[in-house]
Design a protein that fits this description.
4-stranded antiparallel sheet, 18% strand
Length: 419
């Protein structure tokens, strides 16, 4: 099936308009969907960032609660060890109760680590408290955390990024920890003062599930884009196609009007003269014969004066109809003047051309023409001629046909003469 139906060939401007409009529509649709795509991704990452902020805030508030109470003691039993790093800052982590139970302190840093382990087993989310000057080597920063800590020293409030070097990718988030009064019990010896940035907490969230949702979202957006484009292009194509059909019909009507005599329905002078020129060239090229008949109504001016122009129009229409009925399919007839007609007869010799002229003359004369209130017999005179070797154009043919017509008139009308 052709993309452009045959009718489009005649309407290049419409095709250019359709292509241009389609490109504009496609550009705007693509821009809209691309914006939706980017916004959708941004919203998803904003959602995961908000989740990370919530985790950070939960851990931060838990740490503040812990620090405000000077640490939390838990029973020391199997699997629960002492935090030896507390001794380095002058704090004894263990106490013995009167019933000989041993309790050990869980400071904010260790509590954060153990909560991270519990949550990590369930959801894969991990927390890590870190500092550029860690007391515990386990709290040393990785590359992302070190870069974030340096940015915090420059005044940045939070840092986030996606690590795609591993599968599934990870969302990394980190925010700073400020020194509060309750923190100085452990960190005053490091030179910190209230309000200093002493480190931060990083939150790591696996993106496997989110990536799958984003992939599904991209597929849905792409399918919706394709559906929208197909629907709009089909609608646009249908509308343009309807426009082309209307233009084609209008063009046909205009062409018909431009080549048709309004009164008789025959071809007009410009058309028949043009076709005579074409047939003249064709006959010359393939060495074929060409007959020409010039036909004129007898005494038509007197009929008009006597019966009026309205009845004269009735006569002209009737004569035109009878002439058309007497022609072969490939003969051409047109009105070239008030009551004068021209017939072009391709591939006809002088005898055939003469028979055509006689047949027309007889058909027109033998049956009266009327308008319901009056009727009369009309006769015509005709002059015929043939293409000759010496002819250099259609003017020679027309002059001879006109000369023959004049002789038919002079010899008494209602007859055919040749030249």
């Amino acid at each position: 099936m052709r993309l452009w139906p045959k009718l489009f060939k005649g309407f290049r401007e419409v095709k250019v308009f359709f292509i241009s409009l389609s490109l504009i529509v496609l550009f705007f649709i693509a821009a809209i969907f691309f914006g939706i795509y980017l916004r959708s991704d941004a919203l998803m990452f904003e959602t995961i960032r908000d989740e990370a902020r919530s985790y950070f805030d939960l851990i931060l508030q838990t740490r503040i609660w812990n620090a405000q109470h000077g640490g939390v003691y838990v029973e020391k039993k199997e699997g629960v060890g002492s935090n030896l790093y507390l001794k380095e800052v002058g704090i004894e982590p263990d106490i013995v109760c009167s019933n000989n139970r041993v309790l050990t302190m869980r400071n904010p840093a260790l509590m954060t680590k153990e909560i991270s382990q519990l949550i990590g087993k369930r959801s894969g989310v991990r927390f890590h408290i870190t500092s550029l000057k860690p007391i515990n080597s386990e709290n040393s920063p990785d590359r992302f955390e070190r870069d974030a800590l340096l940015e915090f020293e420059g005044g940045k409030k939070e840092v986030s990024s996606v690590d795609r070097t591993i599968v599934p990718p990870l969302f990394r988030y980190m925010a700073p920890l400020s020194v509060e009064q309750s923190c100085l019990a452990c960190h005053e010896r490091q030179g910190y003062k209230v309000g200093d940035i002493r480190g931060g907490i990083s939150v790591t969230i696996p993106l496997g599930g989110l990536e799958e949702k984003m992939r599904t979202n991209r597929i849905m957006l792409m399918l919706l884009l394709i559906f929208t484009v197909v629907l709009l292009m089909s609608t646009l194509y249908y509308m343009v196609w309807r426009l082309v059909l209307r233009l084609h019909e209008s063009r046909k009507k205009l062409r018909h009007i431009s080549i048709t005599d309004e009164l008789t329905g025959l071809r007009n002078r410009r058309y028949i003269m043009g076709r005579l020129g074409e047939e003249f060239q064709r006959a010359r090229r393939i060495e074929k014969s060409l007959g020409v008949i010039m036909l004129d109504l007898d005494n038509f001016k007197q009929l008009n004066d006597l019966y009026g122009h309205q009845f004269g129009d009735v006569i002209l229409r009737a004569v035109a109809k009878r002439m058309q009925s007497s022609l072969r399919d490939y003969d051409l007839v047109g009105r070239i003047g008030g009551e004068e007609f021209l017939i072009v007869s391709p591939d006809s010799d002088i005898e055939e051309t003469g028979r055509i002229a006689e047949r027309m003359r007889t058909i027109i004369r033998d049956e009266p023409i009327g308008d319901g209130s009056k009727e009369m017999t009309v006769t015509v005179s005709a002059g015929i001629t043939m293409l000759r070797d010496e002819d250099r154009g259609i003017d020679a043919l027309l002059r001879r046909a006109d000369k023959a017509l004049y002789r038919a008139k002079q010899e008494g009308r209602d007859r055919v003469a040749s030249s």
